[in-house]
């Protein structure tokens, strides 16, 4: 930047001298030493004034602008690095969250399977207990019914025997004989009930 400013200032006398000479005499190639000297002197004075007062401020402004641009570039680079770091952190958090969600799902599935197995096992135990209780109640009811039938049969047989035999046997002897007979006849009944 400094070189371009100095080069532009250096070209000013070269461009100003021919134009002034053209205005005085009208020839592009004619040379006037006096005019050229005064032009050079004026140029040097203007250059010295600019170099003393204007150029430092211009150079200072240009350097400040360059520093500002450099700071902006550094800031942009820092922002880019921070954005990249944030993006990496975001990806890491997303991966971690996804892993935790998958772990929770797996744990929920295993818990549900375990609860299902426990419920099925409990249902099977309750079913087996219910079947056993029902079979025991049926067996007791069957035995009670058979006993009642047997007693009724004894009474009926005794009544029938009293009518048919009409002998001098007392009622206790009749009952004993009939119970012995029916007991001998009904002996296979408990075995049949046990099979049920």
Structural summary, described in words:
This protein has 196 residues and is mainly alpha-helical. 92% of the residues lie in helices and 0% in strands. The chain is built from 4 helices and no strands. The protein has helices at residues 2-25, 33-165, 171-186, 188-195. The radius of gyration is 64 Å and the shape is rod-shaped. The model has no long low-confidence stretch (mean pLDDT 83).
Write the layout of secondary structure elements.
Blueprint: H1 2-25, H2 33-165, H3 171-186, H4 188-195
Short description:
With 196 residues, this protein is mainly alpha-helical. It is built from four helices and no strands. The mean pLDDT is 83.
Low-confidence stretches: none
Taken from the alpha-carbon principal axes, the silhouette is rod-shaped
Q: Taking Cα atoms only, what radius of gyration do you get, to the nearest Å?
A: 64 Å
How much β-strand is present in the residues?
Answer: under 5%
N-to-C SSE string, H for helix and E for strand = HHHH
Please state the oligomeric state of the protein chains shown: single chain
For the record, give the distance between the C-alpha atoms at the N and C termini, rounded to a whole number. Answer: 116 Å
Number of strands: 0
Structural class: mainly alpha
The pLDDT mean sits at 83
Q: Helix tally?
A: 4
Biggest sheet layout: none
Assign a percent range to the helix content.
over 70%
